Amino acid sequence: MAVVLIRMRLALLRHALRGDRASSLVLGTVIGLILAVGTVAVAVFWPPLLPAALAVWLMGWIFGPIFTGGGEALRPEYFTMIPAAPRRMATALLAGAFASPAVMITSVALTSMAVYGWRFGLLATLVALVAAVITLITMVLVSRVTVAIFGLLVRSRAAAVLAAFVTGTVLALSGNGWALPVAAATAEDLSWAGALVRLLPSGWGIAAIESSPPAALGILAASALVVVLLVAVWAVLLTRRVTSAARGGVPARRRRPRPFPMVRGVRAVAAKELRTWSRDLIRVHLLSFAFFYAVVFTLLPVAIGWWGMVPFVGLIAVLMGAGVSANLYATDGTALWLTLMTPGAERADVRGRQLAWLLAVGPATALLSVAGAAASGETWAWPWVAGLFPAVLGGAAGLVVLVAVTAPVPATDPHRRGGDPLSSGADEGGETGLVWLMLIAVPVTALPAAAAVLIEPWAGVPVGVATGVLCVWGFGRIAARRLASGGTELLALLKYGSAAGRTVREEEAAAAAPDLPLGHKIAVIVCYSLAWLPLFPQGIVPMFFKLFGVEDRVWFLALYLPDAWQWPTITLMISIGLLMYGYAILFPMRYRAPETEQA
Amino acid sequence: MTTHEAPALRATGLRKVFGDRAAVEQVDLSVPAGSLYGLVGPNGAGKTTTLAMAVGLLRPDAGHAEIFGVDVWKDTVRAKSLIGVLPDGHAMPERLTGREVLTYLGLLRGMAPEVVVERTEELLQVLELDTAEGTLVIEYSTGMRKKIGLAVALLHAPRLLVLDEPFEAIDPVSAMTIRTILRRFVEGGGSVVISSHVMALVEGICDHVGVISGGRVVAEGRLDEVRRSRSLEEAFVELVGARAGGTEGLSWLSS
């Protein structure tokens, strides 16, 4: 059976290589291989850092699938009716999971262990080879078990919030995580870190290589036992998953709900939407994610003693909340037909969604802002927060519906979603693009308020309130008009996807516009992954340090330069960061434009 | 102008192309007012696409659709106030209970609150959805989804009902209930269009039929005119020009 599943996985891979995703697949493999070779280089040139590098691979295996929607090419649900014992099925699925580029890449990376072992002699090299195989199996298994636990756990609101804490923290680390090593570099004793990376499953092999032969054998045997245990656990989780019915991520609760309020139009839609916000685990997860992200992101620089970001925690939560809500229409699937079949309901639908979004996000983020500003003790920040908050909140409530109507990423209908309660089935890349779009577009709406604060601190409040109200009203009006005039086309897009909804002429236009060339694709990925560096730690953070006279120079280039060069450097860094993000986001969008434009 | 002489639904030259495949070649059909009209056809014939274009849910590449003489694509709001629709397989406001869905949609249509409450109660009772008060629509079975969809279509007492596969996945008892509701609706002056590929069912309740095949209407009229002396099923197989398979191969199935 294992052989059959491996063949099936390879067949899927072959089709993927011929399909739309071929170039991303090739590109991903190339980047992965570069990283793998880099890991081997670490083993050659900086051996003490190898356990940490291997820990990064383990983290990739654990968190990668959570962010990319399960990463299961062979879904356990396909095989529920095959008469085989759970453990046999789990082993076979595991074998199938090994036929993937990610495993190939990781095995290249793990040859670094043999390189490491070579320093300790021939016997240690042998130990390293065995350990490398066990580590590979363990990584794949840990990844599968994590996905399985995640999928099973996230069936209540509390679990969705907990999952959001994990994802929010990880993503915040990728933006502001630099503060931790910087803080650690100034700390005296780092031996605990070395011990920690050896305690992780990725470091057991290293520990075995470094130990005496009997101890090494013991470690290898123990890790082999862990593999067996993980298979057993996974088998149990698989059986649970395919036999328990939790469709579409509905939190468990069961009572007759409060009666629906007897209101019409906008308020009726808002009542419906508020119920959806609290009853859809995906939405619960996304909003809590925005909150946790904001909290962790702003607290990380406190590690180096800088509280300057904390007052803006509520603002960042609004931005993220807007980013994750921008696909509002598509995540409802084809339910739009009811709005279209109700005469004249389009305006109420847009306004009601705005109202509900403001109610779901506004009060909590306002509280967060006040708490952040108070806790930070940064008195200068109060006028900024008070002026920018209404501007950003209003701008977000306007742009959310506008983007949701004009640039939706089609998702699977809620009642047809699969075993992962947190996946809407929408294209992950497209959804991430929407998040970035909002992160850039929403702050622009707050520029007038920012200018007002610079001129006269408390003048920001009336300006912020005014632009906020204007955005809610104006963008909502455009969205409602677009929905009224192009609702049918929007429904067709959500029902059939962008390809099927196209007419023949658009089909030709799309065919004439090829996939992004490889060079640009690489550049886009590089810009995506590195733009945070000039923008945040080298640009915005030193800017605030200078503005508010913080003495610490940390590792901010600008602050080491002569005074005259500091501002130009900061400006340059921020511009580079913004340009990198702008290019990475806008270029692919322009490229794809012929597919989605014109109806 | 809406007149009682105008057909409940008239489609002329409807056409829809997806990519390089024409889902609907050219459909002309006319549903007389006061009739119970069955649209039949094999899988993939274009029934769903035709109905979606006829009610204003999918913009046709060519052709017109009129509801009681009102152009669906020109006077959209007026046309939509005349019809109740049950599309096949579309999503609903999934995170509401059945009662909440009906209340919400009634209020959104601007119906008076006491009317909404009364009709919701009756519809839930008649369709036997009142036992699942705490259940969200997303947790409904396929049959329950059909029933809540039908309730949504009936809620505002439309003059024309357009139901795509209303009997699919419905148990026999509920099917009987729905049939009775549809007959009463027609007796009360309403018109109904249903699509189905179950001939016996269409024969049992419809007085008019349209046969659609390969994206075209190949026969249309009163039930007796279309089937003549045969059963509808025989007439259908003949009209569609298909050969019933199943007699060859598969010998290993007999054990």
UniProtKB/TrEMBL annotation, chain A:
Q: Which domain of life is it from?
A: Bacteria
Q: Where are the bilayer-spanning segments?
A: 21-46, 52-71, 92-116, 122-147, 159-180, 215-237, 284-304, 310-330, 355-375, 381-407, 434-455, 461-480, 522-545, 565-586
Q: Does the keyword NAD apply?
A: no
Q: Which UniProt keywords apply?
A: Membrane, Transmembrane, Transmembrane helix
Q: What is this protein called?
A: ABC-2 type transport system permease protein
From TrEMBL, chain B:
Molecular function GO labels: ATP binding; ATP hydrolysis activity
> Would the keyword Nucleotide-binding be found if you checked this record's keyword annotation?
yes
**Residue span, ABC transporter domain:** 9-239
Gene3D superfamilies xref list: P-loop containing nucleotide triphosphate hydrolases
Q: What is this protein called?
A: ABC transporter ATP-binding protein
User: Which keywords has UniProt assigned to this entry?
Assistant: ATP-binding, Nucleotide-binding, Transport
Cross-referenced Pfam families:
ABC_tran (PF00005)
Is the keyword Glycosyltransferase in the record? no
The chain's coiled-coil residues are none
InterPro entries documented for this protein: AAA+_ATPase (IPR003593), ABC_transporter-like_ATP-bd (IPR003439), ABC_Transporter_VariousFunc (IPR051782), P-loop_NTPase (IPR027417)
Record's superkingdom?
A: Bacteria
